[in-house]
């Protein structure tokens, strides 16, 4: 069993034991996911890159970020389960699309948005 499947199984059991399944609609889980992503962002808000690097080295920030990142992952796994989405398949499909949207010869070393990459005109 892969680690996503293990998480899905544990989360399903966790929610069933507490009778929370009725609250776990795709909409509710997406909203909770957004809230947790906001909490992750709040840990980094107003910190410059050097402060983040220092905080990660010292450990306290890393622990808080790990906790918030775990919340994001757990809600994402629950959301995709409720929505009938295979998370790993969806991620592979997205990478496939991004590989064609951002060809190496145009995107290497640049953060340019896909719509701004210069492509030869096709007739």
Automatic annotation (TrEMBL):
Q: Pfam families given for it?
A: MazG-like
Signal sequence: where?
none
Q: Does the keyword Oxidoreductase apply?
A: no
UniProt entry keywords in alphabetical sequence? Hydrolase
List this protein's GO terms for biological process: nucleoside triphosphate catabolic process
Q: Which InterPro entries match?
A: dCTP_Pyrophosphatase, DCTPP
Q: Does the keyword Hydrolase apply?
A: yes
| GO MF term set | nucleoside triphosphate diphosphatase activity
Region described as Disordered? 102-123
Which PANTHER family does the entry mention?
A: DCTP PYROPHOSPHATASE 1 (PTHR46523)
Q: Can you say what this protein is called?
A: NTP pyrophosphatase (Non-canonical NTP hydrolase)
Which species is the source of this protein?
Saccharopolyspora gloriosae
